[in-house]
Every structure is written in C-alpha cells, then in structure tokens.
Write a structure and sequence with these properties.
Shape: globular
Number of helices: 1
Helix content: 10-25%
Distance between the termini: 12 Å
Largest sheet: 5 strands, antiparallel
Radius of gyration: 13 Å
C-alpha cells in the first residue's frame, strides 16, 4: 500500500488518514493485525472485506483497495 498511498496522519492505533498517490484524494487506511487472530476473527475480516466490496452507497464508506501486508503481517484496507 505504501506505493499507492501517502500516510499523513494517524487517527488511532490501526487507522490512518492518507492521500492516494494517483488522485491525491483522501482515504482511510485500516491496518488489521492478522498473525495473532483466531480463525473466527480471520473469517470476520474476510467477511468485512467482502461486504465492503459489495457496497456502493453515497453515505457509506466505499472499499477502494485491499492488500495482505506480509512485512507487517496485517490486512490493509483502503476506504
């Protein structure tokens, strides 16, 4: 994700405000630690990503990008 987004502010432990390098539009990056999660929690993350993929409503954040970050062992979601 580092190649596509510039993080400009940390909002919480795993939530960041960033700018898209291609469009310079603001996005929210959510970094979900993956290595220590239970199987049920990992399933929840997959369901969350799949739900975000299907949503396209004006008043709901839209899924923009997704990556499994092997270096940080996180699932990174851009909204």
């Amino acid at each position: 994700m580092q190649d596509r987004y510039n993080i400009i502010e940390r909002k919480s432990k795993n939530i960041f405000k960033a700018l898209s390098k291609s469009s310079e539009k603001p996005v929210i990056l959510k970094k979900v630690p993956f290595s220590s999660l239970s199987s049920k929690a990992k399933e929840y993350i997959v369901n969350e990503v799949n739900t975000l993929l299907r949503m396209d409503y004006i008043h709901i954040l839209r899924y923009l990008d997704f990556e499994i970050n092997k270096k940080d062992v996180t699932v990174d979601i851009a909204m």
